[in-house]
Amino acid sequence: MKKIGFLNFGHWTPSPHSQVRTASDSLLQSIDLAVATEELGADGAYFRVHHFANQLSSPFPLLAAVGAKTSRIEIGTGVIDMRYENPLYMAEDAGSADLIAGGRLQLGISRGSPEQVIDGWRYFGYEPADGEEHADMARQHTDVLLQVLQGKGFAQPNPRPMFPNPPGLLRIEPHSEGLRERIWWGAASDATARWAAKQGMHLMSSTLKADESGEPFHVQQRKQIDVFRKAWSEAGHAHEPRVSVSRSIMPITTDLDRAYFGREGESTDQVGQIEANLRAVFGRTYAAEPDALIEQLAGDEAIAAADTLLLTVPNQLGVDYNVHLLETIIKDVAPGLGWR
């Protein structure tokens, strides 16, 4: 069995060819897709976070709405850029969303990726300390978040409060028990996966990875998973580790599918420079009829090693079309791979 969910970037554009033309369309359709995904029997609804872009950004109102409209599926992010975050306020938001969802939040966070503007986190009021990089700042924000999610008191109470306080130091409220054990880190490299394991965060590995060996993408990603699990075991955490990988998988069963994705069947891994010092390998898109997809996906070592598969969806094609894609994968592809 494998958990299967979608990962939605929430793009919108006023183009007449898009089914998602406004921010309102993107948010409301994201909720509708999550509800439909639960009805299909899938396992998760995850949302990407990008700032200064026509995409989903502030995730917690959306997560709370999805949590209120669903009852079973996991809801989460893939991922929140911690360079932009006030960790205390984030802990309040996350605790509220998790309580609304009944403890179903799976919160993916990371250092972040190249953004639409230069050093966008500066506009949010954050600056790395002297001699530090923005990645250091992201990890510092993360450390604070992980500490306060444990639910221990740390703030000195006012001796003359407006309302009575419980005894001792005060903690962030609302506190959602168990959320600390449902934090994931989006790792691009083996070293970062190892660091995440030591912190007791689960691993999110996306459709790209730092090219560290020149091997095929799925092989490098599987080795990253091995590194993560080994480090987790050595750290001796009490809770079980989880691993998700993201994939673009487009089953072709109709003429419309073929028109949209027929040429993607020839897709291969790509290599590119996404940052000055980061050469990355990008995984292929899988696009074929279900029987061919089963054969192709059976050879993907990283999917086999992961417990959770997040399907990147072409959200601008609309809710109905994306439900069609997800339903085909769940009913016609997943059983042939032993995922269902």
From TrEMBL:
Keywords: Monooxygenase, Oxidoreductase. GO terms for cellular component: cytosol. Residues 8-249 form the Luciferase-like domain. It holds the Pfam family Bac_luciferase. InterPro entries: Bact_Lucif_Oxidored, Luciferase-like_dom, Luciferase-like_sf. One of its GO terms (molecular function) is monooxygenase activity. PANTHER family: BLL6902 PROTEIN, LUCIFERASE-LIKE MONOOXYGENASE. This is Alkanesulfonate monooxygenase SsuD/methylene tetrahydromethanopterin reductase-like flavin-dependent oxidoreductase (Luciferase family).
